[in-house]
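Section 3.1: Structural characterization of target chains.
Under the original work plan, the team committed to producing a structural model for every single-chain target entering the pipeline before any wet-lab resources were allocated. The record below documents one such target. The sequence was received from the expression subgroup and is listed exactly as submitted; it comprises 291 residues.
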Amino acid sequence: LPSIVGRDQLVQANAHLMNADMTGEELVGPALGGAAFSLARSIPFLADALSFVASGALLSRALPDNKPAPSGRSVWTDLVAGLRWFVGQPVLRLLTSIITTLAFCQAMVVGVLVIYATERLHLSAAGYGLLIGVASIGDVIGAFSASRIHARLGSGRCIALAGTIAALAYPVMALTRSAIVAAAALVAEYFAVTIGNVAARSLRQSSVPDGMQGRAASSYQLMILGTFPLGGLLGGLLAGGFGVRTTLFAAGAAQLVVVAAATPRLVARLREQKVVDLTDADEAAPKVLAS
């Protein structure tokens, strides 16, 4: 994305991409898929295959090649160099630590969500699907509003706000047996995760030189996605030993601690480096990602 749009447009571009992704994947796609499946079971699979063909055609015509000059180094050498560079960047290191911990807490909840829905909310399989479908509305709202919120708060405060909202949603889920209240809490959590993802992704992209974008993104994703199985495992162990409510409370409490302890440091570092954290909307709009 940084090679296609200017760095001052990264937040808006990421928000648009996430909006298209979430609208298609979470809302329109499942609805159309269910309707198509009711007509003929083969239609969704055929449509999915055709969508990949269409996507390939669009990619071949719409995006720049961006083929790098051969470096003469091995993949392993490039990987080690990328990781070493990534770890040596204070802002990226702190950002990754925060998002990784928040992702771990989210995975604790996701890992037991189906148990929560069926045992505490007493939902059927169809009811669980509806719960997730309603919750995905938060993704779409978050993607629509991410760039505006970012323009007012800056990246650091966006991430802090997202972490706080998601953390508060978990105890609300733990305390209720109402599917409506639980769905509202999940909408808020999904909304928070989306605005946090847009802010974190844009901050990472704006802080990395062009030649390191791929390796930095790989390192970032490796660290974050690597925590998901561990978070799900811990969530399952806590739910098995102490109940689902304990898992939800633990995830929320851990997330609040991370937000309180780490995000002020991120905001301070961004101020020092003048990367991202403008809070005045008039100043922030055109240059929120100026380095």
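Residues 10-39 form the longest helix (30 residues).
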